[in-house]
């Protein structure tokens, strides 16, 4: 079965579209990523999305119209990824569309009830592509009392759980986050927590000292030396050794943190600072494994995703800190793609719903039970029942 | 198959829920209405709906939360009508929910594209009732280039088309509207137009002269006499004899029209005025039949729906004007209900979608082709595929 997964994140970079071939379902799912594109938003649509996100600038007409506009753009992204892969649209079997989240309220607030709102009209996508669409994945989990997020745990379980290997899925976005998948795990054996900073400190140092957005390929960090005093200072941050469950955000390791650091260590050369915060990021990840995961769970592989997987210096540091008994791999080395991860996840969730199977993880979202996520919209000519 | 149809109209009276038994589909559909209720909106929800309708008072948080609140209320209406009928919820097979329209923009306006927005989260309805839900009927017709309305023609075709009788479906709401269903009609043989005033003039005269909202059962009109001069004046309105297709709204026969009438005929007793405008309403309907329908189409039955079907004086006038060759019936006499008409329509449209069949009428909505309306949301335990 050929499925396109569509995701449009809060960063508003555009629509991620992954074309995958998928057979079977559940743990028997065979997944192969065929192609991936990011379809950028036209400037005016990006502005309308930003308007729609805020209580002060949103209104019903804007949301009504934008829902249809985004439906059109999701269908264009679908056509583009199929064309790039050389797959005729008529051979596409299913689309799984996360949509664009414009509001997410996990908890009651005054007279506003827990609820979530994704837009990108599935009827428009189904009509324009002539393909069945599964969409609105988060609402059913919330109807069942969950927070509607995270929905990735089920997909990580299906894609990475192994009969013979314990695996860690390390995401390195702004923040570092690890999902633990013991060998032969059940869904209940999985757990996840934030390890600490991801690219956040590295990127901020790049901006302040090198006027670059990030350290491409880790090239700058590769040329410097670790300053042990700075490294010790960083590692003394109480978050690193605090016990999971734990989660962090931009407030602990953001701009203010880096400004204080640069002031305190202003005599250290810029290159060495970048090398040292890269090592700190690697160590914060590995120290968390050593303290909280490795003592109780046998781990053979660490699979790294997110923007940080493209920082070769960071990856090499992690591998070197872990030693030879653990293999560090990137999503790309497994035939996936860090960029495509979420789009692939929604292709996989669509596949489950298409087979009438639940795919939320109640222990992750807080839902009262496992439920079938999303609804299905039928195109005019094929997919009739 | 037991189906609940749910409708919540722009009048904000509450949620109409009709429980029907339906077998087969298309022209073979057998429909029996089992029960009907109107579930009123709590005052605060009604106020939130009103807020959500306007560009000035709506916002994304309100719409996100209200979508879930209405989902809950639609599920309560479903439970209530099943309980009233003594049907255990577990025996309910399907729900068709129109939802609450909060915006409908059939045509492009500046940078806002043609679009429509109905809310009342189907995941909440499906979860709370444990029943599959078909919802969002209008979006696919708009995706196909239609105006998303009217959707009733298909349901009228299925419910009233006859092999042996030509039928007129006369709706008497504020405005009068007739749908023509010739004997052995195809969908393309159907057509509809506004005959002129429905209850609009009668109700406004009641308010101004009798301080009542309407003439209950036609009791006041029954006691007066027709004033021929006033009647001739009314019948001279150019709308009555103008050629279909034609449509009218509140602007032609509204408050201003009645005020002018009462001023010009201030010497006529109030009761006679009411009797005369009731006769005018009857005549405007029947004259339209005589001029534009009966010369070319054989008609055996006129089936009257809408609030006007409860005005016995009006119905008797229509019957008497038509003579014995045509039988005038109300929805109630056929086992249906004027109040329940739209809720039944969405049960029927859900039935078609559940069978994978299109149910818009492109000649009525302007869509480029027939499409499958709505999407399906599956409950946690039954309805899995």
UniProtKB/TrEMBL annotation, chains A, B:
CDD domains, per database record: ASKHA_NBD_ANMK
Protein role: Catalyzes the specific phosphorylation of 1,6-anhydro-N-acetylmuramic acid (anhMurNAc) with the simultaneous cleavage of the 1,6-anhydro ring, generating MurNAc-6-P. Is required for the utilization of anhMurNAc either imported from the medium or derived from its own cell wall murein, and thus plays a role in cell wall recycling.
InterPro entries noted in UniProt: Anhydro_N_Ac-Mur_kinase, ATPase_NBD
Pfam families: AnmK
Pathway annotation: Cell wall biogenesis; peptidoglycan recycling; Amino-sugar metabolism; 1,6-anhydro-N-acetylmuramate degradation
Reactions mediated catalytically: 1,6-anhydro-N-acetyl-beta-muramate + ATP + H2O = N-acetyl-D-muramate 6-phosphate + ADP + H(+)
Record-given protein name: Anhydro-N-acetylmuramic acid kinase
């Amino acid at each position: 079965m050929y499925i396109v997964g569509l995701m449009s994140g809060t960063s508003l970079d555009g629509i991620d579209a992954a074309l995958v071939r998928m057979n079977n379902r559940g743990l028997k799912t065979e997944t192969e990523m065929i192609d991936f594109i990011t379809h950028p938003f036209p400037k005016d649509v990006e502005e309308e999305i930003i308007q729609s996100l805020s209580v002060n600038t949103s209104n019903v007409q804007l949301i009504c119209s934008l829902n249809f506009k985004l439906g059109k753009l999701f269908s264009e992204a679908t056509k583009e990824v199929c064309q790039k892969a050389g797959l005729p649209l008529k051979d596409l079997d299913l689309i799984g569309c996360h949509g664009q989240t414009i509001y997410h309220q996990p908890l009651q607030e005054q007279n506003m009830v827990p609820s979530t709102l994704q837009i990108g009209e599935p009827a428009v996508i189904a009509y324009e592509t002539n393909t069945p669409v599964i969409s609105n994945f988060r609402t059913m989990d919330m109807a069942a009392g969950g927070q509607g997020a995270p929905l990735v745990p089920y997909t990580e379980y299906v894609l990475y759980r192994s009969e013979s290997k314990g695996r860690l899925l390390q995401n390195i976005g702004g923040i570092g986050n690890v999902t633990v998948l013991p060998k032969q795990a059940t869904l209940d054996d999985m757990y996840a927590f934030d390890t600490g900073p991801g690219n956040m400190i590295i990127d901020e140092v790049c901006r302040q000292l090198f006027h670059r957005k990030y350290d491409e390929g880790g090239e700058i960090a590769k040329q410097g030396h670790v300053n042990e005093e700075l490294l010790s200072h960083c590692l003394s941050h109480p978050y690193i050794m605090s016990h999971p469950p734990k989660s962090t955000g931009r407030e602990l390791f953001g701009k203010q943190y880096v400004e204080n650091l640069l002031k305190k260590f202003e005599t250290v050369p810029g290159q060495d600072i970048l090398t040292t915060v890269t090592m700190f990021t690697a160590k914060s990840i590995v120290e968390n494994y050593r303290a909280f995961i490795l003592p109780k769970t046998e781990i053979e592989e660490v699979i790294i995703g997110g923007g940080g997987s493209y920082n070769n210096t960071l990856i090499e540091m992690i591998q070197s800190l872990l030693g030879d008994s653990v293999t560090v791999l990137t999503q790309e080395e497994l035939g996936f793609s860090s960029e495509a991860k979420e789009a692939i996840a929604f292709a996989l969730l669509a596949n489950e719903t298409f087979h009438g199977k639940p795919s939320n993880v109640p222990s992750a979202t807080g839902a009262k039970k496992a439920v079938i996520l999303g609804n299905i919209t039928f195109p005019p000519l094929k997919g009739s029942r």
